Amino acid sequence: MREVLALAGVTFSIFSRTTLAVVGPSGSGKSTLASCLACLEPVSSGKIWFAQTEVTAMDAGQQCAIRPSIQMVFQDPASSLNPRMSALELVSEPLKIQDRFDKRERSDRAYDLLERVGLPREKAAQRPDEFSGGQRQRIAIARALVLEPKLVILDEALSALDCSVQAQVANLLMDLQASLGLTYLFITHDLAMAAHLADEIAVMERGRIVETGAARSVVDSPQHAVTRRLLLAAPGVRNSALEPQAV
Amino acid sequence: MVTGAGRDLSRFDPMAPLLDVQNLHVSYTARTGQCSTALANVSFALQPGETLGVLGESGSGKSTLAAALLRLLPGNGRIERGAVHFEGQDLLRAAPRELEKTRGDRLALIFQEPSLALHPAIRVAEQIGDVIAAHKSLGRRAVREQARQILAAVFSTETDRIANSYPHQLSGGQRARVLIAQAISCEPSLIVADEPTASLDPETQQEILSLFWDLRQKFNLSMIWITHNPLLLEGFADRVLVLYAGRVVETGPASNVLSSPRHPYTQALLRCLPPRIEDSFANHKEYLPVIPGETLGSLAASEGCHCLFEPRCVERMAICAEREPEMVQLSSTHGASCFKHVDEWT
Amino acid sequence: MNYFLRRLLQGALLLIGVSFLTFLFSTLAPGNYLDEMRLNPQISSATLAALRSQYQLDRPLPIRYARWMNSIAHGELGYSFAYNSPVAPLVWVRARNTLLLTTTATLLVWGLALPLGIWSAERRGRLSDRALSSATAGLLVIPDLVLGLGLLILTARSGWFPTGGLVSVGFENLSPIRKLSDLVMHMALPVTALVLSALPILIRHIRAAMAEVLDASYLRAAAAHGIAHRKLLYGYALRAAANPLIALFGFSVGTLLSGSLLVEIIMSWPGIGPLLLEAILARDLYVVIGGVLFSTVFLVAGNFLADVLLYWADPRIRTMAGAR
Predict the structure, then answer these.
(1) Are residues C109 and C66 in the same domain?
(2) How many domains does chain C contain in total?
(3) Closest-CA residue of chain B to C125
(4) Beta-carbon neighbour count of residue C176 at 10 Å?
(5) What is the pLDDT of residues B158-168, one digit of tens each?
(6) Residue pairs spanning B and C at CB distance below 8 A
(7) CATH number of A19-77+152-233
């Protein structure tokens, strides 16, 4: 079996209560990075430090203890939510798995979070297919927050949503960050949204980080060719490539 | 290559629109027996060589519109009434064999999700060849040759490798190109593309857009481009039609609709977009404008009762909750269905 | 290539494992071939002892197994106590008949199930589909035994078909055409029993596999390109559904085989079934093993064929196998 190098020499840090956006073309390793950070994939070499403890030096049991602090929201709400469970069950499931609190307390916390993300109590018994795409993503966010994580990894969490719904969910994310003191790792290929939400941006290409820095400086004065390419390709930056040349 | 060469267009008046949709009405029946309206009173016309952008979010009925044009609705969908005239032929009343001949040959449809729209166990070149073989009586060698030519038009490099590949061996962008190749293989006059770039990253999106642009010039195609992202239509579509909850709420030249929209929904939608990169730091990390409320689910109220956007509209008036607005012509080319324009231009 | 070699190796290992287990279970079962003889007071214990050592029944298990493996290497399958002859020719004659029966039944059942399954998948949800569904459910409920006996009673009463045996008396004197028709008449009943018992499950599985594919996006997309209905159904839908159906084929070979053993016994068809039953009751060890081994070979061959077909039909398996 051939070995494929998915990430090479990736080094970066995220400061508490900030948002780091990771952008890059498809195949650049963004999702692999997310999986490694969430302890879902083993790391071949290198170190990951989280809250001053070295995660990579831990054994499986200790890593399990860390997991509640790092949660993930995925791109496709339709496939990341169990279609047979109600919204309430979905959000209280992590508590059940971690064996925290009793049933009553779990429901209370779940209702609480659902309201916080804008879903009324009456809808908590509905199944995912009865919600719209934006609402489903909100359930996924509520589920990610129920264990009170410190770091939330958003793996293309807005990409599958309609434009107006993206705005709603983006506002919600900013809201939650402020009120709960969350740290975000925002993986996306939408540079405009990344520039709007993030404090820092890291640009990846083929498994390496090619540029990193404060959001503003990366966008205003890109250093690397990949960054410049991405900026040109972002919709909204005039489709000048498409305008027909003067006939 | 001249569009229409070798086709019987005797019924087609060159001054008439290429596609004329009138009062199209489509409904779905749920398993519980409940009927919901997916499209109501949709009318528009497309001139030859024109690109119409259909702007709509989830639940607006845009995919239903694409499927309805060729009578390809899923089992529980029904076209209640309306007319679809394409090149002089009424597609809704055509016999199934006639329809099969039109599909793919004169009117091509590109479905969403390139990863799902291709057969997983058949090589790409053969899938394109099947489309050609379905419409032209050519020998197998000739079909293969034509398929290769089409692929070469769409893939400038590595044509042979791609021709012999299976869909799962290709990237998202390559699959999207294969779908386009299938669509243009019989030189149709109209291509309807339903969110062809939705699952692609921005760079590949731009590549596909330029590919469409090139093909449009080369084959003199007319296009209907369905998307939820208004930014993709800028500089690309000639006219834009905005759908909300199955109704046409605004229609007009792209430059007008996208820069100075007249319907509250269109206005709200365009405001919601993340700020352009150039000025993203003016409101860094501030709340983005949103359309309050939830997108209307697949169940739409019965017609005539009230304006469907009214619950979320910032400019709503008393009459909006009582009656459904009709299209008001704001100029010869631009119309919006909103009560606030009723007093203008009669 | 590696893919097939691996499959063949797995098949060979399976055969060895099966032979050992059969050996083990047969010897562990209480009693042996000579027990009946012991009941006969006329046979002296000295004769019995001599017979025991002649048949090597006094040796420990591993040694007997080793000797048996050795004789396999020389092309012999052991010796039958009851028939007093080598096992191989005995089993082979019967095996041919079983093969004839099972192969015909397999071809027939798939020849019926495939069109019926596709037909009902096309009309899923409608009345015709539901009617077929009820019919297959009814058929499913009837045990093979009851089915076989029912057919037997029907034939015995009506006299349409012969009620047993491979061929009629005086077969050798018939012309080739009449020989064939005689054979077919004798086969009709057992084949019908086998087909009826396997048909309902197959139809349901085929219908399910097709229904899933018929709802797929790529089929709608192909319809949008104007591809003709026939081609959509067979060239596209069936091809996509081929994967689970081919696996089902391998599985059906196994079920038909095990079903055939029972049917042969009921219908007096001279195949492996009756031979195996006799041999088990008489503790004729080597015949039992020979019969079981033959069945296993047939099973492995059927599944190997399915693997070959799968490799050919599904490109994803090819790329996966090639990548290793």
Answers:
(1) no
(2) 2
(3) B75
(4) 7
(5) 888 899 989 98
(6) 83
(7) 3.40.50.300
